[in-house]
Write a structure and sequence with these properties.
The structure holds two protein chains of two kinds.
Chain A lengths: L1 H13 L5 H7 L2 E3 L12 E3 L11 H4 L9 E3 L12 H13 L5 E6 L6 H21 L7 E7 L10 H7 L1 E6 L4
Parallel strand pairs in A: 4-5
Antiparallel strand pairs in A: 3-6, 4-6
Chain B lengths: L9 E3 L10 E6 L6 E5 L12 H12 L2 E4 L16 H6 L4 E9 L5 E9 L4 E10 L4 H17 L8 E8 L2 E8 L6 E6 L3 E6 L5 E6 L6 E6 L5 E5 L5 E6 L5 E6 L6 E6 L6 E2 L7 E6 L5 E6 L6 E6 L5 E3 L7 E6 L5 E8 L2 E8 L5 E3 L7 E5 L5 E8 L2 E8 L5 E6 L3 E7 L6
Helix pairs in contact in B: 1-3
Classes of the chains: A alpha+beta, B mainly beta.
């Protein structure tokens, strides 16, 4: 970093050499234009690691099993888990309690209205609400991480309430799915 | 005709040198008390790939603080004070005129000089000679525009500063950096997962931002000189909302590692995180005041998201916004006098400003989905994200609400703007 700064400074200074003769003739100050930040070293690319979902136990994938259901939906600006989702959380808490090596990531989401950062916090509150309930029902804290995706990963992208309600959501993912 | 000045709607189709996103800028509305000015072609500037006078003119026009007078074809072009026809400019009510010249030097570089002339007094009030390479034409023109702007308005120009923003195209997210006029975009980071909340270090060499490449929000600091980036906060839970302290040594961030979204201070290298809010509610979007003494932030501790202020070391918070049930994203101008934030009004999200001394408020925009405001370093413009035809777009508004600009990229979503600092040299 220091070397680079020194290099940039040197490059800027090198551009400063001026002809005194021109200066006196012009009757103006002499300067060298510089851009705010030097040319970039190039693009840094990020490639996320793909999860290996095929190792999941069948119970979590079988559409007939309640454990295959992973989403909880919320009202606008709300983060309390509605009663209708309690049996679903009960089933997942039971699974986590029976399988102490199983890990879960809860991703909280918000609809797109309002501040992106506030929506991260709202999604976090939703995810933590699910985590606390799963713990009360028998899961271990060490098995679960509650995070937020805010409004960044919408399931539905239209500006309608039907769509927004799909996006106010917590998703439960098991180790291997994230 | 080389430039059109009168129309309220002016589209500057700016030529983009880089292959990346081409931001075009549309200006709507005009400022009060615009200064009438003529920018003449610079004698000999055709040796350059682009006319310096065109770029200077576009910069001044875009600021909304000048009324550009058509310079027409003057032959020969004046390069000295004595050669200017002041009577003619006086008749056209010009306050100032810019003249200049460009010559090729023996070493292949160029010398561009300009003079800023006061028309009523018929004297030179500014002038600089620049030695430049062929690649520095735009930078030189922005410097000239900065000098003209400062001499005539008393405020520092921001034409030489840069902006950062995120472009989303399909599932590809790019963190880009461009000149303040949207030209010369370069991609600093490309990812398949979202990038949000970019924010410039005070010296303009680094960006802090939040990336979701690990399936959760993690805070990074990215050096623009080396392209190297460093994880600053990747704790259990979410890590987001970075804000630089004035000395660039630490960040305020929002972590949920201890439960709930709370504000922490952390070294810019990720060292020594310490919690500074303790509310049990949502505390997020910290923003340091320029004097580094206070932090503004958003909290729902009173039942709805509102803006609060506390000491930069934490402690008691004072509520700042009271009207409405959703006031978020606080940012303070560099002189510490004005707060801007996003307010929900009915179903609309608008940019509002608050004079912190008089408590006088003003609504600056009338968008449906305005968000993520960012002050220009001179405090005169605010860049923000908006939606046009269901697509993300950037816009800017003057701090008095009179001048409005839209910056858009063809066929892409643009969001999360951050205006960079002055570059001191």
């Amino acid at each position: 970093m220091k070397t680079l700064l020194a290099f940039v400074a040197a490059a800027l200074l090198a551009g400063c050499a001026s002809t005194p003769e021109l200066e006196s003739k012009a009757g103006v100050e002499d300067r060298t234009p510089t851009t705010a930040v030097p040319a970039q070293p190039g693009v840094t690319a990020v490639t996320p690691i793909a999860p290996k979902a095929d190792q999941l136990p069948n119970a979590l994938k079988d559409p007939k099993n309640i454990l295959s259901k992973r989403s909880i939906f919320y009202d606008y600006d709300k983060y309390d888990v509605k009663d209708e989702y309690k049996p679903l959380l009960q089933a997942h808490a039971h699974y986590l309690a029976q399988n102490r090596s199983a890990k879960m990531l809860i991703q909280g989401n918000a609809d797109e209205r309002g501040s992106r950062e506030y929506n991260i916090a709202l999604g976090q509150k939703r995810a933590e609400g699910v985590r606390k309930m799963l713990q009360l029902m028998g899961a271990q804290e060490s098995q679960i991480e509650a995070v937020s995706l805010g409004e960044e990963k919408p399931r539905c992208t239209e500006n309608t309430e039907a769509c927004y309600s799909q996006n106010r959501r917590s998703d439960m993912l098991y180790g291997g799915e994230y | 005709m080389r430039f059109m000045f009168r129309p309220v709607l002016l589209l500057l189709a700016l030529v983009c040198s880089s292959a990346q996103a081409q931001l075009s800028i549309e200006i709507t509305g005009g400022g009060a008390n615009q200064i009438p000015i003529g920018v003449l072609r610079f004698a000999g500037e055709q040796v350059l790939a682009q006319n310096i006078s065109d770029i200077v003119e576009a910069d001044l026009q875009r600021s909304g603080r000048f009324r550009m007078l058509f310079a027409g074809s003057v032959d020969p072009l004046p390069t000295e004070v004595a050669q200017v026809n002041f009577g003619d400019w006086k008749n056209r009510n010009a306050d100032a005129v810019v003249i200049g010249s460009v010559v090729r030097l023996a070493d292949g570089r160029f010398e561009a000089r300009f003079r800023l002339l006061d028309v009523p007094k018929q004297v030179q009030i500014g002038g600089v000679a620049f030695t430049l390479s062929a690649q520095q034409v735009r930078a030189t023109a922005h410097r000239i525009a900065d000098v003209v702007y400062e001499k005539l308005t008393g405020d520092r120009g921001v034409f030489s500063t840069r902006i950062a923003y995120v472009v989303k195209q399909g599932n590809r997210y790019e963190l880009q950096i461009a000149d303040a006029d949207g030209v010369g975009a370069q991609t600093a980071l490309a990812s398949r997962e979202p990038i949000i909340s970019p924010t410039w270090s005070p010296d303009g060499t680094r960006l802090a931002y939040v990336s979701f490449e690990n399936k959760k929000p993690v805070v990074y600091v990215h050096s623009l000189l080396s392209g190297q980036r460093q994880v600053v906060a990747n704790f259990k839970g979410s890590n987001s909302a970075p804000a630089w302290s004035a000395d660039g040594r630490q960040l305020a961030v929002v972590l949920s590692k201890d439960g709930g979204s709370q504000i922490y201070l952390i070294g810019a290298d990720g060292s020594n995180p310490r919690r500074i809010t303790n509310s049990g509610s949502i505390d997020t979007e910290p923003f340091f005041t320029p004097d580094a003494q206070s932090i503004y932030f958003t909290s729902d501790r009173g039942g709805s998201p509102q803006i609060y202020r506390m000491s930069a070391s934490g402690g008691e918070a004072e509520r700042v916004t009271f009207d409405g049930s959703y006031n978020v994203s606080p940012r303070v101008s560099s002189d510490g006098k004005t707060l801007v934030y996003i307010a929900r009004d009915g179903g609309r999200f608008e940019l509002k400003s608050l004079d912190l001394a008089s408590r006088q408020g003003q609504t600056l925009t009338d968008g449906q989905h305005d968000e993520s405001p960012s002050f220009a370093p001179n405090g005169k413009m605010i860049l923000y994200a908006t939606q046009i035809n269901n697509r993300g777009s950037l816009a800017a508004v003057s701090s008095d609400g009179r001048v409005k600009q839209r910056l858009s990229v063809q066929a892409a979503d643009v969001r999360e703007p951050a205006w960079g600092p002055f570059f001191n040299n």
